[in-house]
UniProtKB/TrEMBL annotation:
<dbReference type="Pfam" id="PF08544">
    <property type="entry name" value="GHMP_kinases_C"/>
</dbReference>
<comment type="function">
    <text>Catalyzes the ATP-dependent phosphorylation of L-homoserine to L-homoserine phosphate.</text>
</comment>
<feature type="domain" description="GHMP kinase N-terminal">
    <location>
        <begin position="72"/>
        <end position="171"/>
    </location>
</feature>
<dbReference type="InterPro" id="IPR013750">
    <property type="entry name" value="GHMP_kinase_C_dom"/>
</dbReference>
<dbReference type="GO" id="GO:0009088">
    <property type="term" value="P:threonine biosynthetic process"/>
</dbReference>
<dbReference type="GO" id="GO:0005524">
    <property type="term" value="F:ATP binding"/>
</dbReference>
<keyword id="KW-0028">Amino-acid biosynthesis</keyword>
<keyword id="KW-0808">Transferase</keyword>
<keyword id="KW-0418">Kinase</keyword>
<dbReference type="InterPro" id="IPR000870">
    <property type="entry name" value="Homoserine_kinase"/>
</dbReference>
<dbReference type="InterPro" id="IPR006204">
    <property type="entry name" value="GHMP_kinase_N_dom"/>
</dbReference>
<dbReference type="InterPro" id="IPR006203">
    <property type="entry name" value="GHMP_knse_ATP-bd_CS"/>
</dbReference>
<keyword id="KW-0963">Cytoplasm</keyword>
<dbReference type="GO" id="GO:0004413">
    <property type="term" value="F:homoserine kinase activity"/>
</dbReference>
<comment type="similarity">
    <text>Belongs to the GHMP kinase family. Homoserine kinase subfamily.</text>
</comment>
<comment type="pathway">
    <text>Amino-acid biosynthesis; L-threonine biosynthesis; L-threonine from L-aspartate: step 4/5.</text>
</comment>
<feature type="domain" description="GHMP kinase C-terminal">
    <location>
        <begin position="232"/>
        <end position="305"/>
    </location>
</feature>
Length: 331
């Protein structure tokens, strides 16, 4: 796009909600979500050329964020991105100032990867914007993912990619954390539905990490390793039953479920109504139930809506995996 056209256009980046851990892969496995009814479940960031940098925050959950732009992770993404461009040798006066608008659609501290969604939309959007402006993307996907993990770490107190990676790449992702390959995309069963219910309360990721023990007992370590290895093998062999049987959380759920009213009843109902697996999405309070048919997913979605949601902020969606991940459009 020419310089003149870019001055009159807005690039919009979208980044979907995600389930961190997926029960059996603490910090190592994540899944991107797409509601089957077409509703939007992810943040959007608009980017346009301006006289000076500014961040505007809009959307359903805008008022739940700190009011000053400097505390918003999107501003930090912008500052980090521009500093990296300068390190690459782009002179300051060759980099246009930008107005960014965050449409904050995901609740904060929800377990749906809310900060990750803002980070991915901001950084992916900036990379796409400058790809058009300079004629070449400043960063590769892997370089971008490394920065996304770093910024997520600034918020939650430790670098973990299990929200940013699926949100960016789409589908089900396994962290390799090798400097040249941070994340791998795994196959998934297309007939699986992921009922995802946010109760409406706020659980801080940092606080939900603090309550976990610093050491894991030997039997749990062996079960964790066995489950993750067998799960990946079962995905590649398309063995649904075995894959689902591995979806148990021996690391975080036993400690975190005490933060989640009605967690045990929700699991019991879901399992009695055909859920193949049930667990905490990321650090909660969102829970998810996996079903292999829409009828069961609908029954569980209705029950969770009626029983797990605590207030007007909560919601529940029947989802499939969002295999596209982050995307951009122009207006
Ligand atoms: N754009 C943003 N989106 C979300 N949180 C942000 C953003 N900018 C700053 N923050 C701050 O980052 C912190 C995010 O907390 P936390 O990691 O618990 O939530 P989260 O990322 O929304 O969690 P989850 O992954 O469970 O959805 C909050 O203190 C919030 O005010
Ligand atoms: N893996 C992270 C995800 C946070 O959303 C955790 O469980 O703390």
């Amino acid at each position: 796009m020419s310089d003149v056209n870019m001055k009159n256009s807005i690039l919009r980046a979208y980044a979907p909600a995600s389930i961190g851990n997926v029960s059996l892969g603490f910090d190592l496995l994540g899944a991107a979500l797409k509601p089957i009814d077409g509703s939007l479940l992810g943040d959007e960031v608009d980017i346009e050329i301006a006289e000076q940098f500014s961040l505007v925050v809009k959307g359903r959950f805008a008022d739940k964020l700190p009011p000053d732009a400097d505390s918003n992770i999107v501003t930090r993404c912008y500052q980090h991105f521009i500093a990296e461009l300068e390190k690459q040798g782009h002179p300051k006066n060759a980099i246009p100032a930008l107005k960014m608008t965050l449409h904050k659609h995901l609740p904060i501290g929800s377990g749906l990867g809310s900060s990750a969604s803002s980070i991915v939309a901001a950084l992916f959007g900036l990379n796409q914007f400058f790809a058009e402006y300079f004629g070449k993307a400043p960063f590769t996907d892997n370089e971008l993912l490394l920065v996304m993990g770093e910024l997520e770490g600034q918020i939650s107190g430790s670098v973990h990619y299990d929200n940013v990676a699926p949100c960016f790449l789409g589908g089900l992702t396994l962290m390799a954390e090798h400097k040249e390959q941070i994340a791998l995309q795994l196959p998934m069963f297309e007939n699986w539905y992921w009922v995802s219910c946010y109760s409406g309360i706020n659980v801080s990721t940092a606080a939900a990490r603090d309550i976990l023990p610093k050491q894991v007992a030997m039997p749990n370590t062996i079960q964790f390793g066995r489950q993750l290895a067998v799960f990946v093998d079962a995905l590649y062999r398309k063995d649904e039953k075995l894959a689902a049987a591995m979806m148990l959380d021996v690391i975080a759920e036993p400690y975190r479920k005490s933060l989640l009213p009605k967690f045990d009843e929700s699991r019991t109902f879901s399992e009695q109504h055909g859920a193949l697996a049930f667990g905490i999405s990321g650090s909660g309070p969102t829970v998810f139930a996996v079903c292999d048919n829409l009828e069961n997913a609908k029954i569980i979605n209705q029950w969770l809506t009626d029983n797990y949601i605590q207030n007007d902020t909560g919601f529940s969606h029947i989802c499939q995996l969002d295999t596209s991940g982050a995307s951009v459009s122009h207006s």
